[in-house]
Design brief:
The chain has 337 residues and is of the alpha/beta class. Helices cover 49% and strands 16% of the residues. The protein has a single domain, classed as TIM Barrel, CATH 3.20.20.30. The protein contains 15 helices and 11 strands. The strands form 2 sheets. It has an 8-stranded parallel barrel, surrounded by 8 helices. Strands 5-6 form a two-stranded antiparallel ribbon. Strand 2, helix 2 and strand 3 form a beta-alpha-beta unit. It is globular, with a radius of gyration of 19 Å.
């Protein structure tokens, strides 16, 4: 079976999220990835609720960061959910959103170093060791958990720029990409493979996951027009990494203008700056067959775990189509209900 993931943000009530995750489990989904949105429903609480209500689907933070959650606390929280879920937890961790972190009054410097240090601390704690660590970002003294996970917790590193890709290729069980087209994913995976070789790792040791923002519709053309009114998607596109813009052969000045327009309050104006071609390249759109074809394009360039995230404007009907698409991509034997 092909692994397929589902990602959600904290905009919906936890009960609704649990219902969607249970439905995804029945449809053959491999994993559920819960975003940490800082001022919305948090990932740890939501995954705990999902752990108590599901049996097989893997449960991942998608992603937390090392600043708003201290690494020692994150280690304990993930180990607790690992116990409750009987070994189904995945830690997805990244640098976080600096704008939102700053609103909390938390310093978020040296992101690559911070992730490297945080993972060293967490893995030592999960191994049951007493940890004393003096790093450039984090310091712990005599930190030791009262219990340890019976099943190893895999770590996926959220990758944007080249330095984070190198770190993920060095220390991650998986790398997690976001806001990518098949063209940029092909180039990103080549970077992962080169870095893995430098660190004497086999490329197939590292899962290559990508978050795909999805708007189901009767056809791709209808979805393209609707997605221009999806404020969340437009915001995401204003935040494309410079590496992605370059790899896609796009004009960086366009995204500077888009960002200024969006921040001025004109999301619709920012959306109109995106060509139909760019939208089709960076989103999962259309009917079930359209979505399956797009996912195949990502699999063809080396992605091993596509993760479908319904956009806020997808609605219940859209989510039902996502369940069908995921079921057929996974090749699950049980049709979605």
């Amino acid at each position: 079976m092909q692994k397929i993931g589902l990602a959600l943000i904290g905009s919906a009530a936890i009960g609704e999220v649990v219902g969607r995750v249970s439905a995804a489990e029945k449809s053959g989904y491999h994993s559920f990835w819960m975003h940490e949105n800082y001022f919305s429903r948090d990932a740890i609480t939501t995954l705990t609720a999902c752990a108590a209500s599901t049996k097989t689907i893997r449960l991942a933070t998608g992603v937390v960061n090392p600043y708003t959650r201290n690494p020692a606390l994150t280690a304990v929280s993930l180990a607790t959910i690992q116990e409750l879920s009987e070994g189904r937890v995945i830690l997805g961790i990244g640098a976080g959103n600096p704008v939102q972190i700053t609103k909390m009054g938390i310093e978020n410097s040296k992101p690559v170093r911070a992730l490297d240090e945080a993972l060293s601390i967490m893995r030592e704690m999960w191994a049951g060791r007493e940890v004393s660590f003096e790093g450039r970002v984090f310091r712990v003294k005599g930190a030791k958990m009262d219990f340890t996970p019976k099943v190893r917790i895999p770590v996926y590193v959220a990758c944007g720029g080249p330095l984070m890709i190198r770190l993920g290729s060095k220390v991650g069980d998986g790398v997690l990409f976001n806001k990518e087209s098949p063209v940029t994913m092909r180039k990103a995976i080549r970077r992962v493979d080169r870095a893995a070789s430098e660190f004497h790792r086999r490329a197939d040791e590292i899962e290559r996951a990508v978050n795909l923002y999805c708007l189901p519709a009767r056809n791709v053309e209808e979805a393209v027009e609707r997605i221009r009114r999806d404020r969340f998607f437009i915001m995401l596109m204003t935040l494309l990494y410079s590496r992605v813009i370059e790899d896609a052969g796009l004009d960086p000045s366009l995204f500077v203008k888009m960002r200024k327009t969006f921040l001025s309050g004109d999301a619709a104006g920012a959306g109109r700056m995106l060509s139909d071609e760019v939208i089709r390249d960076f989103a999962l759109l259309g009917n079930v067959d359209d979505m399956k074809e797009t996912v195949r394009n990502y699999l063809d360039v080396g992605v091993t775990l596509p993760i479908i995230q319904p956009l806020p404007t997808a609605g219940e009907d859209g989510f039902s189509r996502i369940l069908v698409a995921g079921n057929e991509i996974a090749g699950a034997s049980v049709p979605p209900t």
